[in-house]
Write a structure and sequence with these properties.
The structure holds 2 protein chains of 2 kinds.
Chain A (H helix, E strand, L loop, with lengths): L3 E12 L2 E12 L3 E5 L6 H8 L7 E6 L2 E2 L5 H6 L2 E4 L11 H7 L7 H14 L15 H13 L5 E5 L7 H16 L3 E6 L2 H7 L2 E6 L2 E6 L6 H9 L16 E10 L9 E9 L3 E5 L6 H9 L9 E3 L2 E2 L5 H6 L2 E4 L14 H13 L2 E2 L2 E2 L1 H14 L16 H13 L5 E5 L7 H16 L3 E5 L3 H7 L2 E6 L2 E2 L3 E2 L5 H7 L14
Parallel strand pairs in A: 3-8, 3-9, 6-7, 7-8, 13-20, 13-21, 16-19, 19-20
Antiparallel strand pairs in A: 1-2, 1-4, 4-5, 9-10, 11-12, 11-14, 14-15, 17-18, 21-22, 21-23
Helix pairs in contact in A: 3-4, 11-12, 12-13, 13-14
Chain B lengths: L1 E5 L5 H25 L4 H9 L1 H4 L3 H27 L7 H19 L7 H27 L3 H21 L35 H19 L1 H11 L1 H6 L4 H25 L13 H11 L4 H25 L3 H23 E5 L6
Antiparallel strand pairs in B: 1-2
The chains are: A alpha/beta, B mainly alpha.
């Protein structure tokens, strides 16, 4: 099992204005877990898209088992034994598991036979799954199982997994790893894309690190420290944000018995949430995606009104107040989805600064707008948060995800909030920008602002939060100090394995 | 192979150029249409676009430009506010009719008294009538989530029936020898919306239209309410996040467009039309939808688009009379203008790129 499965030689792909991959070469051996490491925008996605036949390289060659391999389309790649689990699932909520899998097949067998096959494969690999359950009712971890089983039914030789653990609790990650080890024992090679270094150290046999489209190094993860890998990835030394550790003040935000029905068909209802937040405190709220994070933010921002007394800001009941009324009282929020929710894609940055800045920054007088003042507010955000853009007249959609995120966070931070609630503040942001956003959050807290950070990135929460709580099916756990929490305890707070059976014990 | 690629930034140049492109393409396609109908395309296009402005009888047609453009602009300005926010009032024609009935009704109620306050009262009644008619789809949408497009459109036909019944019943001229239709307000000076400068075509409706253009421009560019309207149209979720109250916005936008359409109806019935009659409405409310889009939902754009549309109306009538073009061909020609505008509009946000054939 040491033969080379896929040999990549000098792959180059350029898009207008950016070279996504430049002369990338490496080998994946049969039966190994090969990590592909890199920051956002390092060219990982483009590289796997070329392997999967979604993008055609400008130059360079690939060899599969010694034969030239140049898939013109995903179907050809699949025929050669390449399967891929995408980060964003392509499943239909209203259909059941078997129907979803049948949709992706070229010649689906009868549904009953397929269901039987799904059951067998899923149990063989320790991923039990009922083929007749509706996908809309599954947890994120279970949905991922659907995607993995869809791939396994193709008998792959190479399985590509794009950030598979971002939607899993630590316990669920363990189950997944067992499955992956079982696959490699059977000779399947796995190309594992991630930026979570500890995971890679635990799982992968080899790692290729990309930076700005170039292969900057190969290493054996088990023998390399996480710090060294991170510095290879980023290219410079990493700065760890430091907290001033200020004294906590009075309770500023008091949520008691907050319940709210789900705003959409496959959303999550909030159930009896209690939490108290003190001035200067950073509370990290973890949890697997889709367990009520978005809904909690909507309830706090005022986009969805709740019972008046369920949310109290500095003693005042604000559950029925509109977003601007909450802003004027000092409660600011930054939603997860940047384009379309936190910012209007086609509007300029100046206009987007006005979107939340109006009341606290005094950007209008009796409804008449002060464009000059708004523009200088936008310029201030751009300058202080290092937003890379030609200027405030550019449309929000012209910014990269990370830059827009800096703008969105900066817009709220510079309004000097008493309470700031952010959802996924560093999602899709490169490491150095993420570090500066976290530093901004810590600085804010040091000045007495209470901050709630909702995130799926546990490392991030451990880094910035004083206290930790987890959302699980719309319920919030008790708040516990971050210091001294073990990863196991956090996993249990997040709902353990969400009732997913651990079949490996039997195997 | 040609491919459409999204621009990172909407192109400013193309935002201004697309209406011109659309007009040129319409001229070409319209010319072909007229040719197939056996007419000389160049003569037809010249008759529609040139003769009303610079032809032999231009002195007669030029004032008509304001008479026809005024109501189009007034209605289109109101519609554009809603369209900007994604609120689709398709029933301006109905609000126009109701505005005319209410305004004329108030005027006729005072007949034959002569007083200065009658005309202002009629203006208020016209605006209120259009507003009230638009409030029906607005309230239904807010309370029961009905579709404002369907409700406002269907109310046009209700309004037409009401118009017919008014001309045959309540508002019928008692001295009209049994003919349907109200008294002619041209013969009732307190209620007559006369030309301000004789022979210019400029009546109070035209003045109001110009004021509406300025008002809308300030609202959209300098006021929080206008910003909320634009934000709602661009990104409804961001608007909610920004504290825009969707209910209030729906009531404002539909109410405003209804009131302006009602005003247009009132100025028309008390001026150029003169009386309530069964065939009082001539489709201004529907044509204004084209005007609003042709003007890119921008107040200044609508000003020009309204005048251009009036031109095709007048030119179309001349072409019908002089060249014997069928009325349907003229309507088709006007429809093409909107069609091509929407098609060419794509270039504002996308650019055409030539790519080598690549399997995806």
């Amino acid at each position: 099992m040491t033969g080379t499965l896929l040999k990549i030689d000098g792959l180059t792909k350029a898009y207008p204005g950016v070279v996504a991959n430049s002369d990338v070469s490496f080998e994946i051996k049969t039966g190994e877990v090969h990590a592909l490491l890199g920051e956002n925008g390092a060219g990982k996605s483009t590289l796997v898209k070329m392997i999967y036949g979604l993008v055609k390289p400008d130059s360079g060659t690939m060899m599969m088992n010694g034969a030239p391999f140049a898939p013109p389309e995903p179907r050809a790649a699949r025929a050669s034994g390449v399967a891929m689990v995408f980060q964003h699932f392509s499943l239909f909520d209203a259909l059941n598991v078997a129907e979803n899998i049948a949709l992706g097949m070229e010649h689906p067998p009868a549904l009953r036979d397929l269901a039987e096959k799904i059951r067998t494969v899923s149990e063989d690999y320790g991923l039990p799954l009922d083929p007749y359950r509706t996908v809309g009712d599954l947890s994120a971890g279970e949905r991922q199982r659907v995607e993995i089983i869809r791939c396994l039914l193709q008998d792959p030789k190479l399985l590509i997994m794009d950030e598979p653990t971002s939607v899993l609790t630590p316990q669920e990650v363990e189950i997944l790893f067992e499955t992956l080890r079982k696959l490699t024992a059977e000779g399947v090679a796995i190309l594992y894309i991630s930026h979570k270094l500890e995971e890679i150290r635990a799982l992968c046999d080899a790692a290729t690190i990309l930076r700005l489209g170039k292969n900057v190094g190969t290493c054996v993860p088990a023998e390399t420290s996480a710090r060294d890998m991170a510095e290879l990835m980023v290219g410079t030394e990493l700065q760890t944000p430091n907290s001033a550790g200020a004294e906590l003040g009075d309770v500023v935000l008091d949520i008691s018995g907050l319940s709210m029905p789900s705003p959409s068909a496959f959303g999550t209802a909030l159930r009896n949430i209690h939490l108290r937040l003190r001035a200067g405190e950073v509370l990290g709220i973890g949890g697997v995606a889709g367990n009520g994070q978005d809904e909690l933010l909507l309830a706090l921002s005022g986009e969805i009104r709740t019972e008046q007394n369920a949310v109290k800001l500095k003693g005042e009941a604000i559950g029925q107040l509109a977003p601007n009324a909450r802003r004027s009282r000092g409660l600011l929020t930054a939603p997860e989805e940047r384009l379309g929710h936190a910012a209007a894609p086609n509007m300029s940055l100046t206009e987007n600064a006005l979107l939340t800045g109006n009341v606290r920054k005094g950007l209008s007088n009796r409804g008449f707008l002060k464009w000059a003042k708004t523009r200088s507010f936008a310029e201030e955000i751009i300058e202080k948060f290092d937003v890379r853009t030609p200027g405030p007249d550019n449309a929000a959609r012209s910014l990269s995800g990370g830059n827009l995120q800096k703008f969105v966070i900066g817009r709220e931070v510079l309004q000097d909030p008493d309470v700031l609630v952010v959802n996924q503040p560093t999602w899709g942001v490169d490491a150095s920008a993420a570090a500066s956003i976290r530093q901004a959050i810590l600085d804010l807290a040091a000045n007495g602002t209470a901050v709630i950070v909702i995130s799926q990135d546990l490392d991030e929460l451990m880094e910035v939060a004083d206290n930790f709580a987890a959302l699980n099916e719309g319920r919030l756990t008790e708040t516990r100090p971050t210091q001294g929490l073990t990863i196991d305890e956090i996993g249990l707070m997040m709902g353990g394995a969400h009732g997913m059976e651990v079949a490996h014990a039997k195997a | 192979m040609l491919k459409l690629e999204k621009r990172p930034q909407p192109s400013q140049t193309f935002a201004y150029l697309t209406p011109i492109f659309a007009i040129i393409i319409t001229m070409i396609a319209g010319g072909l249409l007229f040719m197939l109908l056996g007419k000389n395309p160049f003569e037809a296009i010249r008759t529609i676009f040139w003769d009303p402005l610079f032809g032999e009888f231009a002195f007669y047609y030029r004032p008509q430009l304001l008479v026809k453009g005024g109501p189009l602009i007034l209605i289109a300005i109101g519609l554009s506010l809603g369209f900007r926010a994604g609120i689709w009032n398709i029933g301006a024609e109905g609000q126009y009719i109701i505005g005319a009935i209410c305004g004329a009704g108030v005027g006729l109620a005072f007949y034959p008294m002569e007083a200065w306050f009658i005309f202002p009262l009629m203006i208020i009644a016209g605006a209120l009538g259009g507003w009230a008619w638009a409030m029906i789809p607005a309230l239904l949408k807010v309370k029961f989530q009905t579709n404002e497009i369907l409700v406002s459109l269907m109310l046009v036909y209700v309004a037409e029936q009401l118009l017919a019944s008014m001309s045959l019943g309540l508002l019928k001229n008692p001295e009209g020898h049994g003919f349907p239709g109200s008294r002619n307000l041209k013969d009732y000076s307190s209620a007559f919306n006369d030309e301000i400068i004789t022979g210019s075509g400029m009546h109070w409706g035209v003045i109001t239209a110009f004021i509406a253009v300025i008002f809308a421009y300030i609202l959209l560019n300098r006021h929080m309410l206008g910003f909320s309207i634009r934000l709602t149209g661009e990104a409804p979720r961001a608007a909610k996040f920004s504290s825009v109250n969707p209910t209030r916005l729906i009531l404002f936008c539909l109410g405003m467009s209804g009131a302006l359409a009602g005003l247009a109806g009132l100025f028309e019935v008390s001026g150029p039309a003169g009386q309530i009659s069964i065939d009082f409405n001539t489709g201004y409310g529907f044509t204004a939808i084209i005007v609003a889009f042709l003007g890119r939902l921008h107040p200044i754009g609508i000003l020009f688009a309204g005048l251009l549309m009036a031109l095709t109306y007048i030119g179309g009538e001349i072409a019908q009379a002089n060249l014997g073009l069928p009325a349907a061909a003229i309507q088709l020609f006007q429809g093409m203008l909107l069609f091509f505008l929407l098609a060419v509009d794509l270039l504002t946000n996308y650019r055409i790129k030539r790519v080598r054939k690549e399997t995806v």
